[in-house]
């Protein structure tokens, strides 16, 4: 895995000579309550499936997802994490150039490069707290000549990583209409949208012809190690995506766990309530840190710019020595070398990070 991502507790544990679970990981943004208790039961009950190949069509999981969204299960394709689908999209849609809005998740660009394509980039502005530049995107999509001809699709991460900024459903609907008119693809990465369901375009996007919505079981359902994600699109796009996936890419335990997770509505509601409170508290504590710039988040992580004189890399290294892992965002195009992203965890862990940050920031020598 590239160093550009968070969550690499194994490498850090080797470096610090400790157990991976001794590290408090603020670098990957996973539901701090963990998976539903039903998931553990389902995994235990599914042990015997380890000696069989998994259902390569993920039939039962797709039925449950279809039911969850009120859509045709044939409009759903499950992948080994949404990452596998991000990887497959350029090949499935034969994309040569994709429009992306930096700062954003690095894997869209990497997937395009692996497929022999490239990206056209626009930037969200720091002065606007990295709000997704919808008007600019509308202009680009709407112009019948010029740049609109130089890309075949646009990918938007909503809510966006690492900034935590989200677009409204109205804005996305407008882009979807334009994309359809101009015969452009619109890929919406909703990996974190469970945390702001009012910003999600599911289920209505299932009837939008040129749109693919990506969802993940990693973040909100806390199953990063099992690798389950899915895409919702038209039946023909789903067929094209499936054709790009190797057989059995989603393992049996992952399918069973995802099914159990989807079935536990009480845990989902509890997780949302918990995050609402924990995030508000964490944001207000982060905002008290001297000269830090905190972007109001829509997901379960917070984007913070450290004070002048600090480097995100230095801060990340110092916190790591204390067993606290944060995401150094300095390599993300379009942000300053002082930018970090921190996941919202349990209040006691958040307090520990605030204390460590505050002590380090007091050190004038940064
Ligand atoms: C914005 C975004 N999309 C997609 C993914 C891929 O998630 P997964 O493959 O675990 O579903 C990630 C992982 O970090 C992400 O941050």
Question: Could you explain the architecture of this structure?
Answer:
The structure is a single chain. A hairpin with a 5-residue loop joins strand 9 and strand 10 (301-305). This protein has helices at 9-16, 37-45, 59-69, 81-92, 107-114, 134-142, 169-182, 235-243, 252-263, 265-287, 312-321, 347-362; strands at 24-25, 76-79, 97-102, 118-123, 153-157, 185-189, 211-216, 229-232, 293-295, 301-305, 324-325, 327-328, 339-343. With 366 residues, it is α/β, with parallel strands linked by helices. The protein contains 12 helices and 13 strands. It starts with 8 loop residues before the first helix and ends with a helix. The relative contact order is 0.17. The strands form 3 sheets. It has a 7-stranded mixed β-sheet, with helices on both faces. The chain has a 4-stranded antiparallel β-sheet with strand order 9-10-13-12, covered by helices on one side. Helix 2 runs antiparallel to helix 9 (252-263). It has 2 domains: 9-30 and 266-362, Aspartate Aminotransferase, domain 1; 37-263, 3-Layer(aba) Sandwich (Aspartate Aminotransferase, domain 2). Helices cover 39% and strands 15% of the residues. Bound molecules: pyridoxal-5'-phosphate. Pyridoxal-5'-phosphate is lined by residues 5, 81-83, 105, 157, 161, 189, 191, 216, 218, 224, 229.
